[in-house]
Amino acid sequence: MTNEKDAPQEILDQPAWKRWGLVRVINSKVRIVEDWLNLCSVFIIMFLMFFATAEIIGRYVFNFPIPGHVEIVELIMAGIVFLGIAYTQRVGGHIRMELFVTQVLKGRGYHMAEIITSTLSLFVYIFIMYYSFRSTLYSMEVGDTTAYLYWPTWPSKMLIPIGCLFLCIRFMIEIIQHLCQFIAGTEMRNLD
Known about the structure:
Largest sheet: none
Number of strands: 0
Distance between the termini: 21 Å
Shape: elongated
Order of helices and strands: HHHHHHH
Structural class: mainly alpha
Number of helices: 7
Oligomer: single chain
Strand content: under 5%
């Protein structure tokens, strides 16, 4: 590692984790997957919007509702929520209570708090990923279907562990990023 006094200014202006090539490469590849998963979530939302419009027009204008519309919406909700969850974490879009962290904690204290919260979140989502994957396998084994349309539920359930997997990878990347900043002792909070 370069001595801080001898390092060029452009290196010192970037976050400490960007000095590690492997972390940069992993982060860039995971970002691509997160962007695609988020795009899938956006398309599912658009489909849901058009589907709801078609159901309302069919019900009230033509007196012909779409059969099983409630079950279809229930099945696609997992895709809306969990395919975009890692992207939302990356851009800081989740609702958080930041008053203490942003106003009181500075430098290493801030990064340590972020390491602790990301680690706790990682363990929670590993737990959710594991048990939702087991539930998906069980649904496949027993042939679980919806009550009205008899559509299999496992494809929708599989979106939960997929989304949780990429969220856990995002948490691990964030832990490494904040750990590098903690070790470097810098105040920099924007790690992109």
